[in-house]
Amino acid sequence: MFLRRLPVLIHLFALAAFILPGRAVAQAPLEAAQLPARTSFYVVWHGSPVGDARKNNALMSLWDDPDLAPARAALVDAIVNDANKQKDKPGVTRDELAQIATLLDNPFTLGYLPRREPASKSATAKAAAPAWHGMFFVYDRTGKEELLSKTILQMRSGEKEIPKLSEATIAGVKALKIEKKSGTTYWAETGKYMVTAGEESIFEEVLNRLAGRGAGASLADSEAYREAKPLLSGGLLAFFLRVPQIKDMAGDSSDSPPELKAMWSNLKLESLHVFAGHISLEGARTRLQGGILGDTSEGSLFDIWSAGQSQPGSLAYVTPDTIYYNESQISLLGIYNTLKRVLAEPGSNTARMAKTMENAAQTRIGMPLPDALALTTGEFGTMQNSPALDPDKKVFFAGIRNKPETLKLIRTILGDRLTAERNEGNVTYLKISLKGNQGTTGVAQWNFYHLAVTPDLLVGASRGETLRGTLSQERSAGADSLPADLRMARAKFPEKLIGFSYYDLQKVDWPALQRNWKTQRAKAAAESKNADATQKAKTLNDWMSNLDPAVFPRHLHSMTGGSWKDAGGVHFDEWLD
User: Is residue 276 in some structural domain?
Assistant: First the structure.
């Protein structure tokens, strides 16, 4: 049935928006003001953008560049081949996929509605509530009527089971009822819209809403939507999810095991009210803006994120040569306390197992887990100064407190794998064997990793010279001493962040990166015993050999992103220029 084919159709549509010619942004079939107030989830696609927006946008102009043709062809082939490998799915050709992709010219709304009332909890009811198929899909088929019908017929032709088809009139509209062992789907074409749903009540409700006969409050009137509204304005695509209802969408029911119910309750999922955002084109830039909004008070799921910093320790190592920098902050103690709360239901098997594992870990490290986690600040970062993005030049950071105690913990955990330790000023250099250890007679040690412990950071790299080169640089004193481009990127966001990333795409040596990728993929293929992985590596090398790397700096300049936590939740804002 068609609704069960939606994941396949969406898979075939992947990245197809960039293939399409520009057209005017249109009204979606159902916007928030038309959706029922109880809507749990929706995605609204407003159709392909206008021609100028596409032409002037960096990402889309890159996609349209003739020099990227080998990459486009490889992507199409990958989608086609992957789709054709799926059992019970109709095969598609490249031409057919190109036709299907043009369906994204038009807007659509995909959503989920929960039951109007909870399943019966009567003491006499022995059978579980029937499965609920709350998804619905509404598509503006204007100008696509013939192609849409052809696509649906093609999808149905590959099904092994012959469904039972019957006609029905629902909400005054002639509809097709498609019955299969796996469930029932309702389908109709009314006016300029195609509508499908897995439940008759939802199908009827959607048809009434489309006809302007919707009764009761709309989603736009709900508290959850009002909370998320600033994140849903404008854009090509908008998404909305009431987070606490994930467990209902996942099939959680009243007859679930008590331990599972307790875990859901202890997780305090209700503290995360809504996940929402949108993707928009703003001139040359593509923007993804969104957030997870809710109750950030202590003891909620928001405890897994830290409060943020204005000047994280790793940021001080950024130089004018930095190509890529990424830093994020989590609360390891918050994660620990959350997991302990979720798993520690008195008397449960999960509680006993969690306690056993915690005791074993504490015995191994020689201190209580909360004390060990408190030695970290929750800061984790990555930096790359190599224009060719050489993996051996990548540097990793982790924030710490109390260097002596941190060193003691490292020595306890790594034991015989520590092959060398040396102090230089306030920095302790450690050499770690990733293969073999000192306590194993006759076993050679190789594949070393290099770690430096400073008063506020762990700094690691696969090569000793990379690590020393990083630490030999004079550290920046503050935000004003950062490279100009990165300082301007950082200034877009609030003072305190829990995540920040910057990628200077103009500094990348794209030909060298192409060579490195080909070498690495060839090496991985040679070492792999998986025939499919080897073939994929060969395919990647083939199209990369015909790809002109100069196409990327011609269009792309930088990527910037920031995330922060405030009283309303966690927010993120990502830009590609």
Answer: no
CA distance 139 to 197: 12
Residue 19 scores a pLDDT above 70:
no
User: Looking at the structure, do residues 314 and 228 belong to the same domain, yes or no?
Assistant: no
Give the other-Cβ count within 10 Å of 29's Cβ: 24
Residue 205, Ramachandran bin (φ over 0: left; ψ between -120 and 50: alpha; else beta): alpha
pLDDT tens track for 364-398:
888 999 999 999 999 999 999 999 999 999 999 99
Is the separation of the CB atoms in 172 and 188 below 8 Å? Answer: no
User: Shortest CA distance to 376 belongs to which of 344, 335, 340?
Assistant: 335
Pairwise CA distance, residues 516 & 414, whole Å: 32
Closest by Cα among 381, 434, 428, 437 to 406: 428
Q: Whole-angstrom Cα distance, residue 67 to residue 543? A: 12
Same domain, 112 and 6: yes
The domain in which residue 546 lies consists of 511-553
Interatomic CA distance for residues 397 and 454, integer angstroms: 11
> In whole angstroms, what is the distance from residue 360 CA to residue 500 CA?
36
**Contact status, residue 409 vs residue 372, Cβ threshold 8 Å:** yes
Cβ proximity of 310 and 490 under 8 Å: no
Whether residue 144 contacts residue 103, with contact meaning beta carbons closer than 8 Å, is answered with yes
Domain membership flag for residue 368: yes
User: Are residues 375 and 241 part of one domain?
Assistant: no
Number of structural domains the chain divides into: 3
Taking the C-alpha atoms of residue 428 and residue 458, their distance in angstroms, rounded to an integer, is: 10
Q: What is the pLDDT of residues 313-352, one digit of tens each?
A: 999 899 889 999 999 999 999 999 998 888 877 667 777 8
Rounded distance between C-alpha atoms, residue 481 and residue 478, angstroms: 6
Assess whether 527 and 426 both reside in one domain.
no
Mark whether 326 and 188 lie in a shared domain: no
- The radius of gyration of the chain from alpha carbons, rounded to an integer in Å, stands at 27
Do both 397 and 486 map to the same domain?
Answer: yes
pLDDT tens sequence across 283-298: 999 999 999 999 999 9
Give the whole-angstrom CA distance, residue 279 versus residue 53. 13
- Do 337 and 460 fall into the same domain? yes
Q: Based on the domain organization, do 442 and 453 belong to the same domain?
A: yes
3-class secondary structure, 219? helix
